[in-house]
Design goal:
This is Anti-sigma F factor antagonist. The protein has a single domain, classed as 2-Layer Sandwich (Transcription Regulator spoIIAA), CATH 3.30.750.24. The protein is built from four helices and five strands. The longest helix is centred in the N-terminal third of the chain and has 17 residues.
Length: 113
Protein backbone atom coordinates (compact mmCIF):
# COMPACT_ATOMS: atom_id res chain seq x y z
CA UNK A 1 0.00 0.00 0.00
CA UNK A 2 1.25 3.45 -0.88
CA UNK A 3 1.07 5.66 2.20
CA UNK A 4 3.22 8.53 3.45
CA UNK A 5 3.55 9.28 7.15
CA UNK A 6 4.77 12.60 8.47
CA UNK A 7 4.75 14.23 11.87
CA UNK A 8 3.78 17.78 12.64
CA UNK A 9 4.62 18.14 16.32
CA UNK A 10 2.66 15.42 18.11
CA UNK A 11 0.28 14.93 15.17
CA UNK A 12 0.76 12.06 12.75
CA UNK A 13 -0.41 12.86 9.21
CA UNK A 14 -1.32 9.77 7.21
CA UNK A 15 -1.46 10.50 3.48
CA UNK A 16 -3.15 7.58 1.76
CA UNK A 17 -2.20 7.42 -1.91
CA UNK A 18 -4.34 4.56 -3.18
CA UNK A 19 -7.74 2.99 -2.75
CA UNK A 20 -8.60 1.24 0.52
CA UNK A 21 -9.86 -2.32 0.35
CA UNK A 22 -9.46 -5.35 2.61
CA UNK A 23 -5.83 -5.99 1.64
CA UNK A 24 -4.57 -2.43 1.87
CA UNK A 25 -6.56 -1.81 5.07
CA UNK A 26 -4.85 -4.71 6.83
CA UNK A 27 -1.41 -3.34 5.93
CA UNK A 28 -2.34 0.20 6.97
CA UNK A 29 -3.83 -0.98 10.28
CA UNK A 30 -0.57 -2.72 11.26
CA UNK A 31 1.62 0.15 10.09
CA UNK A 32 -0.36 2.77 12.00
CA UNK A 33 -0.64 0.74 15.19
CA UNK A 34 3.14 0.30 15.20
CA UNK A 35 3.69 4.00 14.53
CA UNK A 36 1.32 5.12 17.29
CA UNK A 37 3.02 2.79 19.78
CA UNK A 38 6.61 3.80 18.99
CA UNK A 39 6.08 7.52 18.44
CA UNK A 40 4.86 10.26 20.70
CA UNK A 41 1.65 10.73 18.75
CA UNK A 42 -1.24 12.60 20.32
CA UNK A 43 -3.40 13.29 17.25
CA UNK A 44 -3.87 11.70 13.84
CA UNK A 45 -4.98 13.19 10.54
CA UNK A 46 -6.11 10.92 7.73
CA UNK A 47 -5.40 12.59 4.37
CA UNK A 48 -7.61 10.91 1.76
CA UNK A 49 -6.37 12.94 -1.23
CA UNK A 50 -5.25 9.79 -3.08
CA UNK A 51 -8.31 7.64 -2.35
CA UNK A 52 -11.06 7.14 -4.95
CA UNK A 53 -12.55 3.93 -3.53
CA UNK A 54 -13.00 2.65 0.01
CA UNK A 55 -14.92 -0.32 1.38
CA UNK A 56 -15.94 -1.09 4.96
CA UNK A 57 -12.39 -2.21 5.76
CA UNK A 58 -11.23 1.36 5.29
CA UNK A 59 -13.91 2.62 7.66
CA UNK A 60 -12.72 0.05 10.18
CA UNK A 61 -9.14 1.31 9.96
CA UNK A 62 -10.21 4.92 10.55
CA UNK A 63 -12.59 4.17 13.43
CA UNK A 64 -10.16 1.71 15.04
CA UNK A 65 -7.27 4.18 15.01
CA UNK A 66 -9.66 6.89 16.29
CA UNK A 67 -10.53 4.65 19.25
CA UNK A 68 -6.84 3.96 19.93
CA UNK A 69 -5.86 7.63 19.87
CA UNK A 70 -8.90 8.63 21.93
CA UNK A 71 -7.68 6.32 24.73
CA UNK A 72 -4.53 8.48 24.76
CA UNK A 73 -6.68 11.64 25.03
CA UNK A 74 -5.90 12.47 21.42
CA UNK A 75 -8.01 13.54 18.48
CA UNK A 76 -8.48 12.43 14.88
CA UNK A 77 -9.50 14.21 11.70
CA UNK A 78 -10.24 13.43 8.06
CA UNK A 79 -8.99 15.75 5.31
CA UNK A 80 -8.99 16.02 1.52
CA UNK A 81 -11.67 13.38 0.97
CA UNK A 82 -13.47 13.59 -2.36
CA UNK A 83 -17.31 13.79 -2.40
CA UNK A 84 -17.69 10.03 -2.93
CA UNK A 85 -15.52 9.19 0.09
CA UNK A 86 -17.23 11.89 2.16
CA UNK A 87 -20.57 10.29 1.33
CA UNK A 88 -19.29 6.95 2.63
CA UNK A 89 -18.16 8.60 5.86
CA UNK A 90 -21.49 10.42 6.18
CA UNK A 91 -23.62 7.33 5.57
CA UNK A 92 -21.57 5.22 7.98
CA UNK A 93 -21.83 7.78 10.78
CA UNK A 94 -18.07 8.36 10.97
CA UNK A 95 -18.50 12.13 10.63
CA UNK A 96 -20.48 12.15 13.88
CA UNK A 97 -17.32 11.22 15.78
CA UNK A 98 -14.46 12.37 13.54
CA UNK A 99 -14.51 15.86 12.00
CA UNK A 100 -13.62 16.44 8.35
CA UNK A 101 -11.66 19.42 7.02
CA UNK A 102 -10.69 20.69 3.59
CA UNK A 103 -6.94 20.63 4.29
CA UNK A 104 -4.32 19.38 6.75
CA UNK A 105 -3.65 22.93 7.94
CA UNK A 106 -7.33 23.39 8.87
CA UNK A 107 -7.30 20.20 10.94
CA UNK A 108 -4.03 21.15 12.63
CA UNK A 109 -5.42 24.58 13.55
CA UNK A 110 -8.50 22.99 15.09
CA UNK A 111 -6.51 20.39 17.02
CA UNK A 112 -3.78 22.68 18.27
CA UNK A 113 -5.57 26.00 18.50
Amino acid sequence: MDVKLSKKGTTLVIKILEDMDHHSAQYLRQKLDNEIIKATVKNIIFDFSGVNFMDSSGIGVVVGRYNNIKKLNGRAAIVNANPKIMQIFEMSGVLKIIPAYAAVEDALSSMCG
